[in-house]
Specification:
By secondary structure, this protein is mainly α. It has seven helices and no strands. It has one domain. Helix content is about 75%, strand content about 0%. It has helices at about 1-10, 20-40, 45-70, 80-90, 95-110, 115-120, 125-150.
């Protein structure tokens, strides 16, 4: 039961089993969750969900690694969901701005600039979650710069 719950969380409701580009599918799921949270209109709720999902991802990621028998299995996409939420948190954006945030996050997640790549070396679920959290923070900062340069995207 514990393993089943962890895999359900880590794969974000099995989105991670999408046959093509599961990480991108997880980021899209994060974008959908962002829209629902933003509709609720509470920045405190957005922040709370990020903290809870990050903590849950650390636990679930560790359990999922044992279940799948490998480090940072591609099926685990809760890290992409959290990274996407971090990219957009506390920024007033239109859909075009959110889409730019999506591409910024995916770019930082793929490139893994310092210290994201080093965070991958952390043990278990923390390593799974931390590199995408760093990519999400970079995405947030980059999106702020883009929106400052092109205010029409807000």
């Amino acid at each position: 039961m514990k393993t089943r719950l962890a895999v359900l969380l880590a794969t974000f409701g099995y989105v991670g089993h999408f046959p093509i580009a599961p990480g991108t599918a997880g980021s899209v799921a994060g974008l959908v969750l962002f829209a629902a949270l933003r509709f609720a209109g509470s920045p405190a709720l957005e922040l709370a969900v990020i903290v809870v999902l990050f903590a849950a991802g650390c636990w679930a990621g560790s359990v999922a690694e044992r279940h799948y028998g490998r480090t940072d299995p591609g099926f685990v996409v809760l890290d992409e969901v959290v990274g996407m939420l971090l990219t957009l948190v506390l920024i007033p954006v239109s859909w075009s701005g959110a889409l730019i945030g999506f591409f910024l996050f995916r770019g930082f997640d793929i490139v893994k600039p310092f210290p994201a790549r080093q965070c991958e070396r952390l043990h278990g679920g923390l390593g799974i979650m931390a590199d995408d959290a760093v990519a999400g923070i970079y995405g947030n900062l980059a999106l702020r710069l883009v929106l400052y340069a092109v205010p029409a995207l807000r």
